[in-house]
Amino acid sequence: MPDVSVVVIVYNDAERLPTAVQSVLDQTLHGVEVVIVDDCSKDRSFEVAKELEAAHPGRVRAYQLPENSGAGGEPRNIGIGHAEGRYVMFLDSDDILEVNACRNMLEAAERTDADIVSGLCVRVHKDTRNQKRDEWYAWLYRTTRTLNSVSELPDLFVWDTLSTNKCYRRDFLLDNNLLFPKGMLYEDLMFIAEAYLAAKKITLIPNQVYFWNVYAQAKVKSVTNRRHEMTNYIHRLEIHRRIDALLAERGMTEMQTAKDVKFLKHDLVLHLRDLPFRDESYRREFAELSRGYLEGLDREAYTRVQPIQAICAYLLQQGDWDNLLPAVDTLTHRNKVSSPLARKDGRIYWCAEHLDDEFARSVLDVTDLGYHQKPIRELFLRNELTRYAEADGTVRLAGRITNPLGVIRPEAKIKGQVEFRARRRSLQTFNFPVKALRNEGSVISWEADVDLSARLRPLGIIDSVWDVRVILDVDGAKTNTRLTIGESELGSGLLPVKPRLTRLVADHIEPQPTAKGHLAFRLVSARHDNERIEELIQSAVRGRPGKLAKAGYRRAKELRKTLTSEKTKLRLFHEVYGRLPVKKRTIVFESMLGKQYSDSPRAIYEEMRSRGLEFEAFWSYAGSPKDFPADAHLVRRWSLPYLKALARAEFWVDNQSYPLKLAKRPDTTYIQTWHGSALKKMGFDQPGLKAATHAQQAAEERHLSRFDHFVCRSEHDVRTLAKAFRIGESKLLRVGYPRNDALVRARQAEDAPDGRRERGALAAELGIPADKKVLLYAPTFRTPGAFPMPFDVEKFTEEFGDRYVLLVRAHYLNHVVLPPTAKGKVIDVSARHDVMPLMELADALITDYSSVMFDYALLDRPILFFAYDYDSYVHEERGTYFDLVEHAPGPVFRTEEEFHDVLKSLDTAQDPHAEARKRFVAEFGEYDRGNAAERIVDTFFSGWSR
User: Fold this and answer.
1) Helix, strand, coil percent values for the chain (each to nearest 5)
2) Residue ranges with strand state E in 183-338
3) Does 876 have pLDDT greater than 70?
4) Which element (helix H / strand E) includes 294?
5) CB of 465 within 8 A of CB of 422?
6) Under DSSP, is residue 2 helix (H, G, I), strand (E, B) or coil?
7) What number of other Cβ atoms are within 10 A of residue 562's Cβ?
8) How many Å apart are CA 111 and CA 862, to the nearest integer?
9) What is the dihedral sign for C-alpha 808, 812, 818, 823?
10) Contact 486, 384 (CB under 8 A)
11) How many CA atoms lie within 13 A of 837 on its CB side?
């Protein structure tokens, strides 16, 4: 008896069948048989199968159905019936098995006594140049594990619905009468759902077992590439209904909700993306089929998918095509804003319709996406093509650009141009003026005449595809739009053009939609013999001259890649720039990895400028150089000028770290100002670094050893940071933080006999009324991306908006999204480089574990600690040097209700935490005396006078 029977199904695939079969015969496990089942093919598939049977007697058997079954289910059922192995696997004729697949799966099955063993499937995109590969839901297969029920891992049931990357115990299939539905597309989904639910043990292994070959350009499309056929969707819905019934019978509501989520995120999305390309009758039928099924989904599922996925599903259920088709544009192009949006009761909605329904409002609410906060230059707007006409070599175009929430004001000055750009990078671009632009409120209408025949001069052959954009200039701010074809009919005529290289292959250009529905143009030839000529040219390209040319091009590309690689830059830094002489009186300043002009490096720099010292300054920036000093050389982080400046500088001054792999020269002095005293454990005190390998620890110590001087503001810094970074006593500068000089001086001015507090120009710049107090919320970093506010911002404005203005300062690796109702009452100040002026302005600080607590305490103003995740942050992360609850110089609270209670008592005359703040400053800010920058400049740079 064979160990494994591999059932190979085939239909009209005689050419690829031998490769699939050979991948089974080549298995490192020898006890494997092949059962070929032909679904009554019209080509030589069954003849090839019989030839393979004759060539491999005893190992290959071939069978044929008397008539075509219409899908892959019945051939697999026949295969199960003829299989003789203890285990059964399935293989399609256009795919292959990994060479160790059977061995690995059999060993796992016998070791764990599993009914099903499942391994990694790899999709191989055969049409791509390098045969791109992606692993199918790889997160399920990170480690080997055995489940006693599929309910232990709902994601397996929901996402890995393939039958082919699995090995089944044959007795398990027979005992449970597990068969594929006959004549149904998506038969895998039903079969594997029943198998998962019946299995007493399922083992997952991290090995690759199955290569799913994807032929997107094939003449005969696979089921997954025939979504334009309504039968495809009908079968998908029917299979889903049957699976829903299975789950309902077993009362598996959690699994059902997870499956509903997958339907909204995956199954429905696949078909929605095709809707713009379908006619009205198709859309009507599609909507009618969908409506009944969508009504039965758990509404909880809508809250667990991307907002645009939920929006599309809801609008489809409502049959609202006017809003749905633009929404599908955003579904396809995730960053595109394709709706004018609507504002109601302080919230932002996808559209103005349906808002009388509570569920609709919850689905259509897009406030948290932050569209209302983005300037025009950051918006990718829908540009719907409304007119396309051709005449005498000229294309007349017209369109409508979405104007969400009227972000383009009626009084704005608008200019535009149509850009034709060759799709291949570094090739040509041609621009044509937009002759008419009209702000119509929710849209910007435009028109342009594009004289392609006269002005477009492609090279020919290598730039055959041209993408079209409309670039909008709004009061000097630019945004690029792509032309969505939508309902417009493209012309059928060919426009003559004059390629620079040759007109043999292409002498005309014609419009075509891209795969995602945007307008593009393609070079073609009107010659009757163009196919033969193109074949000759392509033959030449594939011949020796072409190979030489392509080899040269590849070498040039590789050289460019090499020259800009990290490895090359490091060699340049150490072997070229590092051999140049150190340039006296040269300093490279950097703050927050180049993201800001701020902190102690800024304070030192401005102290040096105020004294009129003679030196050459370089400031590192990452991203935009906006707001960096104009009287310094600005160098982009990791650029060649940056590396050269670092290699030749006499001093480095930063507050975090220059790139770790850059070795500091002995003649360069590195002043590390650091960016805050430590609550969280740092350096070698972190559990992760303690557990690191010797090599990892040595690398960390190498980069820390570059510090020549380390600025401290208290003995707490000496006990924590200096010790954790293994910095010797001789390197310590007990001078305080230069950035805090402004805070100390502000407090001293307030405490003077005739002193009073001045708000300064910042309050007016931010539009803060004189009668309102200012709260600064500055939380610490957790994970990159959007920072979720731990309290209801709208409730805060309702409760306290008449008394306070809240400034929100996210960590520089985070951003926040605020509802429009909070405008003027809650202000996002995260983009401001320097937090010090914000601290000076604030009447009280709200934070959690951020080091700003140590700095703000110098002002002797209230500090509130919103430690909503204290237990997990302290005990599950890297730990802290002291108990914040015990040492905090202000109230510590964890809930929104407690937060509100603290704010209500904030204005009372009594201040129960005044003494605690004084003790806190004495312990954590003993060297902050208002002259740190002055002392550092005196120590290192006083001799640099002009």
Assistant:
1) 40, 25, 40
2) 202-214, 336-337
3) no
4) helix 280-295
5) yes
6) coil
7) 11
8) 63
9) positive
10) yes
11) 16
Six token digits for residue 597:
């002009």
CA angle (839 as vertex; 838, 844 as ends), nearest 5: 115
List all residues 6 or more positions away from 470 whose beta carbon is below 8 Å from its beta carbon: 383, 399, 401, 416, 417, 418, 419, 434, 446, 448, 480, 481, 483
How many C-beta neighbours within 10 Å does residue 628 have? 18
At 658, list the tokens.
């220059």
Distance of alpha carbon 762 from alpha carbon 46, whole angstroms: 81
Strand boundaries in 340-476, DSSP class E:
342-344, 347-349, 380-381, 383-391, 394-402, 414-422, 429-433, 436-439, 443-451, 465-474
Assigned token pair, 645: 């400046």
**What percentage of the chain carries pLDDT values higher than 90?**
75
For residue 346, how many other CB atoms are within 10 A of its CB?
A: 14
- Assigned token pair, 216: 């997107």
Q: List, in order, residues 6 or more apart from 595 with CB less than 8 Å away.
A: 621, 622, 623, 812
The candidate with the shortest Cα–Cα distance to 682, out of 717, 639, 647, is 717
> Measuring CA to CA, which residue among 310, 301, 311 is closest to residue 154?
301
β-sheet bridge partners, residue 166: 118
- Residue 34's H or E segment, with its range, is strand 32-38
Contact 675, 781 (CB under 8 A): no
> Is it the case that residue 567 has pLDDT exceeding 80?
yes
Instruction: Count CA atoms within 13 Å of residue 660 on its CB side.
Output: 8
Inter-residue contact 586 to 650 (CB < 8 Å): yes
Segment (H or E) for 25: helix 17-25
- The amino acid that residue 391 corresponds to is A
Distance CA 509, CA 325 (A): 29
**Rg of the chain's alpha carbons, rounded to an integer?**
34
The letter for the amino acid at 406 is G
Question: What is the pTM for the complete model shown?
Answer: 0.74
User: In this structure, what token pair is assigned to residue 941?
Assistant: 């740079």
User: Of 58, 20, 215, which Cα lies nearest the Cα of 124?
Assistant: 215
Angle between helices 307-318 and 280-295 (to 10 degrees): 110
At 259-318, the pLDDT tens digits run 999 999 999 999 999 888 888 899 999 999 999 999 999 999 999 999 999 999 999 999
Residue type, 443: V
781 CB-near residues (< 8 Å, 6+ apart): 811, 813, 814
Specify the long-range contacts of residues 434-439, CB closer than 8 Å, at least 24 apart: 434/470, 439/403, 439/408, 439/409, 439/410, 439/412, 439/414
How far, in Å, CA of 522 to CA of 535, rounded? 18
Contact by Cβ (8 Å): 494, 506? no
Task: Report residue 793 as tokens.
Answer: 């911002």
DSSP state of 855: H
- Burial degree of 447 (CB within 10 A; 0-12, 13-18, 19+): middle
What is the per-residue DSSP string for 317-360?
HHT-HHHHHHHHHHHHSTTEE-S--EEETTEEES-STTTTSHHH
Quick one: average pLDDT of 418-434?
A: 85
Structure tokens given for 4? 């494994």
